[in-house]
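Supplementary Methods S3. Complex input for the 6-deoxy-beta-L-fructofuranose-bound model.
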Amino acid sequence: MSVSAPSKAELFTQLDQQAIELPSWAFGNSGTRFRVFGSPGTPRDPFEKISDAAQVHRYTGIAPSVALHIPWDKCDYQALRNHAEDNGIRLGTINSNTFQDEDYKLGSVTHSDDRIRQKAIDHHLDCIEIMGQTGSRDLKIWLADGSNYPGQDDIRGRQDRLADSLSKIYSQLSGNQRLVLEYKFFEPAFYHTDVPDWGTAYAQVAALGERAVVCLDTGHHAPGTNIEFIVMQLLRLGKLGSFDFNSRFYADDDLIVGAADPFQLFRIMYEVIRGGGYGKDSEVAFMLDQCHNIEDKIPGQMRSVLNVQAMTARALLVDRSALATAQQAGDVLLANDILMDAFYTDVRPLIIEWRERHGLPENPVSAFNDSGYLKKIAADRVGGTQAGWGA
Ligand code: LRH
Ligand code: MN
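Predicted complex, serialized as structure tokens:
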């Protein structure tokens, strides 16, 4: 594709290559320590989560896979895979969970106790076995590991134990499988986190090998962080494996991506495109990682993927050759103006035309709301226990 502003046909070809993975846990109940609100029709098992996720792909055309979280989605994985494929989607990233077991209070793969560390490693080997059944490529590892008080533990020793544990997990991957390490600067640990930033994640995965990459969760940075700079650098280093998209006003709020700062999402997608991280030839996975604490979950997920699509379309419209010329010339205001021109471009008519060409409704959210699906699941899903984080 020429680096000048794409034609409509070129833009549509680019939009055809968008695929955003949905988190199974976004369809269950989540909340805060203050309250986890339920809602009628909330799924009670992974099969109902998959059924709801399939609705998002059916109306938007850009959400063909669902990430699972283990053990929250523990079930007959072959049957779940069949159920997903019967509903036109597939199972995606397998997320491990070493943050809800009493043994992991002071750490999991970083713990100084050999038994506890081996237990955490074995959980990841179980996840790799599950990937064989679900046909998943990525094992995503986010660690709550850290400490709350200075001196509580030897942060150097923990780093060395982390490296050793990750190498034992990495050695069990096969085929095209990848280990994706996610960083987060704090919470639930409040003094230090063992994988707090992109630099630490990069150092750890670089030591493992080429099938070890980094996950960038947009809610996991200190306020004021230039996230698109990190995107640029990880792409430049060939270590950007995936995104966990969400937005926030303060901390890890896990709100709808693009809701708090659509301009930031635009800047991130521009660096993804500029760095070769978008499209059919890219290995970068795009996933949502959100919690719909008070809003309806399925429309919330739809709004989220549509926000990413809209900012991707605007970023694709940047006239990169004119931008390069202005940058070379040191024309600060013109360069900024060229980027802002794309951001201020109303892409909604173009995206509606793209949907028409794919037999998708002009307004996916209202079409879904008019389908009666929410009423049906509220009526059908009575009894049982609504799915949640089980914290
Ligand atoms: C941690 C995190 C991680 C998931 C969890 C649901 O904050 O972003 O990606 O395991 O949320
Ligand atoms: Mn995440």
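The pocket of manganese (II) ion (ligand 2) is lined by residues 142, 182, 217, 244, 289 (CB under 6 Å). The two ends are 47 Å apart (CA to CA).
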